[in-house]
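Q: Got a minute? One more chain.
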Amino acid sequence: MLMSHMQDTIQHADIPLQILYNRTMVQLGFCAFRNGYIKDAHQALNDVQSANKSKELLAQGMQMRNMEKTAEQEKTEKQRLMPYHMHINLELLECIYLVSAMLIEIPYLVSHEFDTRRRMISKQFHYQMKMSDRQALLGPPENMREHVVAASKAMKTGDWKACVKFLINEKMNQKVWHLLPQADRVREMLISKIKEESLRTYMFAFSPVYDSVSLPTLAEMFALDETCVHSIISKMILNEELMASLDEPSSCVVMHRTEPSKLQSLALQLSEKIINITELNEKIAEFKTNRGSQNTYQRQQGQGYQSWGGGGGHDRGYQDRGYQDRGHDRGYQDRGHDRGYQDRGQDRGYQDRGYQDRGYQDRGYQDRGYDRGYGHDRGGRGHDRGGRGYDRGGRGHERGGHDRRAASRRMAQLMSN
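A: Always. Here it is, folded:
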């Protein structure tokens, strides 16, 4: 499987092959757990157990959540089910998975107790722990899950004897451990792993209390060989999990006390949360400011387009500047009256200068004044000028050159006669 990388492409395979793959991975997880490879066992069982669909994934039962299936689909699923004598014990599967998660998760939780960025290794194990913490009254464990949770809480304090007592007893032997081949060897392996992980958990939890601790004392506390304790402490120091040093002549572990205390860790955690909240508030304020300025700019642009487009004539003051009423404002309409065009003929005395006496009246010159527009019609010229040249053609007609030439020729003929 490592060479074929089947785990990367198994999701695209057909369903019978996926079922066979899941059952094979479960058996590999059981083998790894029996031989003491806890991390490999957890990794092999994680895909099947984390989805809470182990019965369906192993073809040992039908999924009853969605009942919207046709008769043909139900018939096909029933044909895929494994016979009963080939079933894998689901309680054994869950127990091995939870015990493996306990041996990995508890030391990690204690070492990163005040770390806000710690990762979650097993979701199902965390869920069981949270459900146990929510209960107001805790009695003695009854089922398999409660036994594993009680053993996990005992391991948190470094009490390996209580942890072994919760996991290995008559009830758990009947339900779980007797189902495995070579059960006695599996129990011995499990006790050894519990002692080692309890030692690591104890050093993570109580190292700030000690200035130094001797290796023989730790070996006596956890019923381990001194060489085994020396090996575990050395690995923790090399992996920078424990800030300490080994004093070989005295066989002691000297603590460096570089880790922050509980109060300091809580203060650092509070400061990180305050920094995160401050950054979040700044981002929200910046977003609102940018959005407000953008809306204001769009509103101003909208008003500008309206003033230049739809209501531009009114806003720019075309009517206020008097273009529409320019004739009234500047007096074009009344200019004829103001300047006296209407009365100019009488003021200048066209009739008093003797045009009537000289015979102009008989010769048709009395109407000429009106034709030329010097009298009342010339005032109309002023009135028509208020329209900015719309009646200018009438002015040309009234003062037309043809009429003036014809009248001048007639006058010359009359004077010559």
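A: Residues 262-310 form the longest helix (49 residues).
Q: Perfect, thanks.
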